[in-house]
Design goal:
Elements (H helix, E strand, L loop, with lengths): L9 E5 L3 H15 L4 E4 L5 H7 L2 E7 L7 H11 L4 E6 L4 H9 L4 E4 L4 H30 L16 H13 L6 E4 L6 H12 L5 E5 L5 H9 E2 L11 E2 L1 H4 L4 E5 L6 H13 L1 E2 L8 E2 L3 E6 L3 H7 L4 H7 L2 E4 L9 H16 L9 H8 L6 H15 L8 H9 L26 H15 L4 H8 L3 H11 L1
Parallel strand pairs: 1-2, 1-3, 3-4, 4-5, 6-13, 6-14, 7-10, 10-13
Antiparallel strand pairs: 8-9, 11-12
Helix pairs in contact: 1-5, 5-6, 6-7, 13-15, 15-16, 17-18, 17-19, 18-19
The structure holds adenosine-5'-triphosphate (ATP).
The site of adenosine-5'-triphosphate has 17 residues, from helix 7 and helix 15.
Protein name: Two component, sigma54 specific, transcriptional regulator, Fis family
Organism: Geotalea uraniireducens (strain Rf4) (Geobacter uraniireducens)
GO molecular function: ATP binding; sequence-specific DNA binding
């Protein structure tokens, strides 16, 4: 959103009547926040203007001296077919309208039409152009597999393919004025993703984060929209709301799934109309921030159950990112372990300890219900009590065992290929069990607790087996 012009491409108004151009410009800005407007009163200049600057939409008068609107439309379709055109006429002529639509006009309006109809049509055209652009951008990224701004994601440690696809998606939608929805379990890194999207939006303002969980409706309205002096008992001073604090930046609403229905209505109105009223004021203010929302809940399920408004859900879903849980990206565990060991050692003024080999094996057997945040906390705890050069496994084992109700089970999906394919004589059941136990003990470096987790059995069951193996 360079220089905060909206939309990110120009809208060219072509009409030989300067008064009409002025009145339409004012209405577009006042009613829809459209500021990226270029004007042209000489139809012969249209193509040159298009070639000089980035135009996405042309709003074209039909009756003009020199070149008429239909001729200009034909030239645009021929020389710049990527540009969308809306035709406006002083007369309501069905035949002309049909002809223009057949020539490729996006829509046709009569100057005497209700102004709202024209503005809604312009907004529809803008949404369509933006979607097309995002699509093109996404396809290009997917084809060349690269990121334009890898620095924006520097703080997010991952080698996972799904996470890299998310990065490419964020780059594609970063400049869109539509809201961005980030969902995923608690602790997967949703706030970090929101920060990357904010950096890439190019907005100069701040990222203002608001956790909306547990806010009742009036506190929600006051927090977001602020109030004027005397708005309610105790409102001795006017207060700016978070929407205003986030001007020219990003408003990040966390835990959006917990919002009450009346607050959902307020948020929808804000997103749809771009306007809000501070409490006690009858003068609307315009939102000038990009909105990013996050939730650990399944909004689709909530919407089906009737606890989340369908219209808001669809509005929020325009750009949607689903961050995978840590257990679905186990390849990230060694990297994150190393990252947090460094971070914790630095924060606690210690030398970075060396993790024992079996630690990654152990962590791979765990589901991490608290995701990356839980891993980070485990590492900080281990580093804070650590003394020797090699990190002790004890605190990790304790933290994992503390998770009551956690069934002991391996996380990797069962192997589908035939392990015994090349073997002529099948081992007996107890021979195979002994071999498995020996292998698990070797991988766990003799640690029975880890070996038991690797095998998916209790430690006492392993002890019994070990006695037999010996
Ligand atoms: N890929 C990652 N690389 C480095 N640190 C990460 C990564 N993912 C998460 N973290 C760290 O884990 C912690 C939790 O991340 P974050 O707050 O972004 O999660 P969240 O999904 O927003 O959680 P919640 O739903 O509870 O708000 C933070 O300290 C964050 O820095």
């Amino acid at each position: 959103m360079s220089e905060n012009l909206y939309p990110p491409f120009g809208i060219l108004l072509v009409d030989d009547e300067p008064a009409w151009i002025l009145s339409l410009s004012v209405s577009l800005e006042r009613c829809a926040g459209i500021t990226n407007i270029i004007t042209c009163t000489d139809s012969r200049e249209v193509i040159k203007t298009i070639e000089r600057q980035e135009i996405g939409l042309v709003i074209l008068d039909l009756v003009m001296p020199h070149l008429g609107g239909e001729e200009v439309l034909a030239l645009i379709r021929e020389q710049h077919p990527e540009i969308t055109t809306i035709v406006i006429s002083g007369m309501n002529q069905l035949e002309t309208a049909v002809r223009c639509m057949k020539m490729g006009a996006f829509d046709y309006y009569v100057k005497t039409d209700d102004e709202d109809r024209l503005i809604n049509g312009v907004m529809r055209a803008i949404s369509m152009i933006e979607l097309k652009r995002e699509n093109r951008e996404m396809s290009n990224r997917i084809l060349d597999g690269s990121l334009k701004h890898p620095k924006a994601f520097a703080g997010i440690v991952t080698t996972n393919r799904a996470m890299h696809a998310i990065f490419a998606y964020i780059e594609a939608v970063a400049q869109s004025p539509q809201p961005l929805l980030i969902s995923g379990e608690s602790g997967v890194g949703k706030e970090q993703i929101a920060q990357a999207a904010h950096v890439l939006s190019g907005c100069r303002g701040p990222l203002v984060a608001v956790n909306v969980a547990g806010l009742d409706d009036s506190v929600f309205a006051d927090t977001l929209f602020g109030h004027v002096r005397g708005a309610f008992t105790g409102a001795e001073q006017a207060r700016r709301g978070m929407v205003e604090e986030a001007a020219d930046g990003t408003l990040f609403l966390d835990e959006i799934g917990d919002l009450s229905i009346p607050s959902q209505v307020k948020l929808l109105r804000l997103l749809q109309e771009g306007e809000y009223f501070p409490l006690g004021s009858d003068r609307p203010k315009r939102i000038k921030a990009r909105v990013i929302v996050a939730t650990h809940q399944d909004l689709a399920a909530k919407q089906s159950a009737g606890t989340f408004r369908r219209d808001l859900y669809y509005r929020l879903c325009t750009h949607h990112i689903q961050v995978p849980p840590l257990r679905e990206r186990q390849e990230d565990i060694p990297l994150l372990l190393d990252h947090f060991l460094k971070e914790a050692a630095g924060a606690l003024g210690k030398k970075k300890p060396t993790p024992p080999k079996e630690l990654v094996q152990l962590l791979a057997t765990y589901k991490f219900p608290g995701n990356v945040r839980e891993l980070r906390a485990m590492v900080y705890d281990a580093v804070s009590i650590h003394r020797d050069r090699i990190l002790s496994m004890e605190s990790f084992l304790k933290a994992i065992d503390r998770q009551d109700g956690q069934r002991i089970e391996l996380l990797s999906p069962p192997q589908r290929h035939n392990l015994f394919g090349g073997i002529e004589r099948l081992p007996t059941f107890s021979e195979a069990a002994d071999l498995l136990v020996t292998e698990a003990m070797s991988r766990a470096n003799g640690n029975q607790s880890i070996a038991a987790r690797l095998l998916g059995i209790t430690q006492s069951a392993l002890c019994k087996r070990l006695k037999r193996v010996k």
